[in-house]
Specification:
The complex is a heterodimer of chains A (about 90) and B (about 300). Chain A is about 5% helix and about 35% strand. Chain A has a 4-stranded antiparallel sheet. The model of chain A has no long low-confidence stretch (mean pLDDT about 95). Chain B is of the alpha+beta class and about 300 residues long. Chain B has 9 helices and 10 strands. Chain B has a 6-stranded antiparallel sheet. Chain B starts with 6 loop residues before the first helix and ends with a helix. Classes of the chains: A mainly beta (about 90), B alpha+beta (about 300). Chains A and B meet through strand 1 and strand 2 of A and strand 6 and helix 8 of B.
Chain lengths: ~90, ~300
């Protein structure tokens, strides 16, 4: 039996796992499903906490970085990024 | 005579970063465009490269050196000349980038259907989200005009776009990691539809699961003049007075300030306030009213007494 990693990336409305999902990406290392940009209009979970409740393990979260002086009102990338994983065993 | 945009349409563009004109181009011009590029069905297209080569060799779409005035860009009476002389298209372009706009580049985007990828034994993937060109912190903006000569059904994977993202400064494909964004839209339209995007709007091409080839002709246009009240040459626009905040009067009619302050579902709880501030700053540039505000967002932080 081999192990493969599935990765779920959630971008939340504010930096707490209770917050609503506003953007998401899924990468399936088992090869069972090919995810791609624009493949779903509905988030896989309403909040980050719901992903935990479904067995996803959090392994990285974005840090709070103070805005650069003079650039406080500049907007850019989505801020509140959380990486989750699930390991799946099987014959791949 | 060019039909200039209304103040409401300009506010919509300032807020969402895009405008659409459904079925604007007539059936005859759409047919002329498709005939000109040698539109065919997928069984007759052996490879993407050969398909493009053939169009480049036979169509009237010219090679346009970057920086060419739009007025000199297309052969007289060609389908594209007719499209850019449409009074609504000309009016929208004049309103946003002026009457002496220049061409940055153009491209005919072709999205092949599943059958082609199966035959070629290739993986069929959508285009990742991106912001065109490169990181662009200017106040000046370019526009990208999209022309859809055929119907685009949901299955055809029309251009995906994210309303309200145009003022976020990012670096091209660095947003590719966002596979899906709440509130994302994909263009589904009738033949002859025109879309105009602010050059900063996040977007990407969808997957074409239909049986037919999908086309989208794009031109990026740059202004050569200040983009201030170009839609209102008589300068009649006046900002609205302040209104009550939070403890509001819902009986009042909706105004253009409601368009400017529209929230988008993908915005974070903290950063959405900065998005609003940036829309107000953008509206100041577009209207020339350097002190105008909407809902006190800028007045509050400009009240610096030290």
């Amino acid at each position: 039996m081999a192990k493969r990693q599935k990765v779920l990336v959630l971008y939340l409305k504010f930096p707490s796992l209770e917050a609503e999902v506003i953007s998401w990406a899924t990468f399936d290392g088992t090869g069972k499903k090919l995810h791609m940009t624009g493949d779903s209009d509905t988030p896989p979970y309403p909040t980050g906490l719901d992903a935990l409740l479904d067995g996803w393990r959090l392994f990285q979260a974005s840090q709070a970085i103070p805005e650069q002086p003079g650039e406080e009102y500049r907007t850019s990338y989505l801020k509140h990024e959380f990486f989750f994983e699930k390991l799946e065993e099987g014959d791949f | 005579m060019p039909k200039l945009l209304t103040t409401e349409q300009m506010a919509e563009f300032a807020s969402s970063g895009c405008l659409f004109f459904d079925e604007l181009i007539d059936e005859q011009t759409n047919k002329e465009f498709l005939d000109d590029i040698g539109h065919t069905d997928i069984d007759k297209a052996d490879s993407v490269n050969d398909f493009y080569k053939n169009i480049k060799a036979t169509s009237s779409i010219p090679r346009i050196p970057a920086g060419t005035p739009l007025k000199e860009a297309f052969p007289k009476n060609s389908p594209l000349d007719k499209i850019f002389k449409n009074e609504v298209v000309e009016g929208a372009i004049t309103s946003l980038v002026g009457s002496n706009t220049i061409v940055d580049h153009q491209f005919l985007h072709i999205t092949f259907p599943t059958k082609y990828f199966n035959q070629a034994n290739q993986r069929q993937m959508s285009q990742a989200n991106h912001q065109d060109s490169t990181i662009d912190p200017r106040s000046t903006f370019d526009v990208q005009l999209f022309y859809f000569p055929t119907e685009v059904t949901k299955e055809m994977g029309g251009t995906r776009y994210h309303p309200g993202t145009h003022l976020r400064i990012v670096n091209e494909m660095a947003i590719a990691k966002y596979q899906n964004i709440l509130g994302q839209k994909s263009i589904v339209c009738k033949p002859g539809t025109i879309g105009i995007f602010h050059s900063g709007l996040w977007h990407g091409a969808g997957v074409n699961f239909s049986e037919n080839i999908r086309y989208m002709f794009k031109v990026r246009l740059q202004p050569t003049e200040k983009q201030e009240l170009l839609w209102d040459p008589e300068k009649k626009y006046q900002p609205l007075p302040n209104r009550a905040l939070y403890w509001t009067d819902e009986t009042k009619d909706q105004t253009i300030n409601d368009i400017l302050m529209r929230p988008y579902p993908w915005q974070e709880a903290d950063t959405n306030r900065l998005d609003k501030i940036n829309v107000v700053k953008f509206w100041r540039l577009l209207t020339g009213h350097k002190k105008m505000d909407v809902d006190y967002w800028l007045t509050r932080i400009e009240n610096e007494l030290y």
